[in-house]
Amino acid sequence: MDDFLSANWAERYKDMWNRNETLVSGLKGFSALIEYGWEDGSRPSAFLEVQDGRAVGTAYGSAPRKPDFVMKASPENWQRLRDGSLSGRAALLTKKLKFQGSMITAMKYMGPFEQSIALLGKA
């Protein structure tokens, strides 16, 4: 699966996140450490630090602190999220995307969440 969820991917994703002004402004007031990982734990996770809607840092392999949100999926479901054949909302509701964190916060920011998922395959 190319370098998806690698350190290089995380940096590209951070840059794309910050270039998407609709995403950044839609997450104004949102700050969190987000983990993107593999459902079976077979490979290290990538981490994105968000402060006031802007992606400010990445990590790979180990988190700088306990993540606020964790999203994990199988390689097949990550691929479907990346190519757009599975939406973030549908993945959450069908548990194809394993999610840990405040569901209330996730629902509040569902529009920007969908945009961030759409960026996964572009990074």
Automatic annotation (TrEMBL):
**Taxonomic superkingdom:** Bacteria
Classification via Pfam families: SCP2
Q: Which InterPro entries match?
A: SCP2_sterol-bd_dom (IPR003033), SCP2_sterol-bd_dom_sf (IPR036527)
The UniProt entry, under SUPFAM superfamilies, shows: SCP-like (SSF55718)
Pinpoint the SCP2 domain residues. 40-113
- UniProt protein name: SCP2 sterol-binding domain-containing protein
Question: What phylogenetic lineage does the species belong to?
Answer: Bacteria, Pseudomonadati, Pseudomonadota, Betaproteobacteria, Burkholderiales
